[in-house]
């Protein structure tokens, strides 16, 4: 685990637990196999909630019972899984071919270090042909994730002995400080999982029952959230996920940036999977303004979140979402500003503490 530096902005009068954030982001957990992350979540929730349960899919739910109306409940969701691969073939030369678990941009995969979780964890690299030897045809060809091959530095017999079809592959990267930011793999969505766990730790004696849900298989279709939307059947759901921060030189129009690092928590208005309930996002905005919490509004043209998973499975439900602006999504150098993380925790906590079950979210 990477250690926080002496000038870590997590430090201060109200320090955030940077060691926990680094532990969460560096843990391995692709869709359907979130075991290592689930262990951390269960450990952290144990002292913060009244009860913890895990369902047949692997979703973890930590519940704090409300003091007022036990029939009114709020679900707060952040997903545990990260994008990765599953082994589909080992060829005669000992190179490993994979199937993607989640959405990858093939351009960023060349020469990345990975871990193949076979009989034991093996370090490998995704192969990359040197530019000196690329043909014009290869240079102009569109790259595909299906073209990825992993070199384990072993002969074919050794690889065949150690690796099997169905073994998992994760990208290999540590988390570290970078100025006012943290950078590493799987900030999507472990940084929001971290924020959820921090909010659960802060909240005491809420008026309504709160279910803190760590969901599975979000990256392959919001599957864990869809199941919990039925199983928990909350009266209100708030999902946390990262969102696009294209506030970098290659983006021409300011509108295309979606959000900006350092401007605070992002209150979602829409993405391609959901239009959040107007009364919910308005109240989130009011809470942020009345508490002096830095915030911005998010309109995301593409991409979906667990928010949609809770909106309709058990009937129409009011939903809202808080996002943490993050650069370089779905790479091993995802980057978020720690002050935006802090603002997200503050906003989520203030919103939940102010929820009485009496707000009318119907339209």
UniProtKB/TrEMBL annotation:
Record key words, sorted: Aminopeptidase, Hydrolase, Metal-binding, Protease
Cofactor annotation comment: Binds 2 divalent metal cations per subunit.
Binding site for Zn(2+) 2: 188, 219, 330
Residues that bind Zn(2+) 1: 79, 188, 241
Keyword Protease: yes
Gene Ontology MF annotations: aminopeptidase activity; metal ion binding
Protein's GO biological process: proteolysis
Cofactor section: a divalent metal cation
PANTHER family: AMINOPEPTIDASE, AMINOPEPTIDASE YPDE-RELATED
Active site: 218
Membrane-crossing residue ranges in chain numbering: none
Family per record: Belongs to the peptidase M42 family.
Organism expressing this protein natively: Halorubrum rubrum
InterPro entries: Peptidase_M42, Peptidase_M42_aminopept, Peptidase_M42_dom2
Record's protein name: M42 family metallopeptidase
Pfam families, per database record: Peptidase_M42
């Amino acid at each position: 685990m990477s250690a926080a530096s002496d000038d870590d902005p997590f430090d201060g009068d109200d320090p955030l637990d940077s060691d926990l954030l680094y532990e969460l982001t560096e843990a391995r957990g692709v869709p359907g196999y979130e075991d290592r992350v689930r262990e951390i979540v269960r450990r952290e929730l144990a002292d913060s909630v009244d009860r913890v349960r895990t369902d047949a899919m692997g979703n973890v739910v930590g519940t704090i019972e409300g003091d007022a109306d036990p029939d009114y409940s709020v679900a707060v969701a952040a997903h545990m899984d990260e994008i990765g691969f599953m082994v589909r073939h080992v060829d005669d030369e000992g190179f490993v071919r994979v199937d993607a678990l989640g959405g990858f941009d093939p351009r960023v995969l060349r020469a990345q270090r990975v871990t193949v979780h076979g009989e034991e964890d093996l370090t490998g690299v995704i192969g990359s042909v040197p530019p000196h030897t690329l043909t014009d045809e290869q240079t102009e060809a569109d790259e595909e994730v299906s073209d990825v091959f992993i070199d384990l530095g072993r002969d074919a017999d050794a690889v065949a002995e150690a690796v099997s079809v169905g073994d998992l592959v994760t990208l290999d990267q540590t988390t570290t400080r970078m100025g006012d930011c943290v950078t590493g793999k799987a900030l999507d969505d472990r940084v929001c999982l971290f924020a959820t766990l921090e909010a659960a730790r802060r909240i005491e004696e809420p008026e309504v029952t709160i279910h803190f849900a760590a969901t599975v298989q979000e990256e392959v279709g919001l599957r864990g959230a869809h199941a919990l939307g039925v199983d928990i059947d909350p009266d209100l759901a708030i999902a946390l996920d990262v969102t696009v921060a294209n506030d970098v030189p290659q983006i021409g129009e300011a509108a295309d940036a979606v959000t900006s690092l350092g401007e605070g928590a992002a209150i979602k208005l829409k993405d391609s999977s959901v239009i959040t309930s107007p009364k919910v996002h308005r109240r989130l905005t009011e809470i942020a303004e009345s508490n002096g919490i830095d915030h911005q509004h998010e309109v995301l043209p593409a991409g979906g979140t667990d928010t949609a998973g809770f909106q309709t499975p058990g009937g129409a439900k009011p939903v809202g979402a808080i996002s943490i602006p993050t650069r370089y999504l779905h790479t091993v150098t995802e980057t978020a500003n720690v002050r935006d993380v802090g603002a997200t925790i503050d906003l989520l906590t203030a919103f939940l503490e102010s929820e009485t079950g009496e707000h009318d979210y119907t339209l």
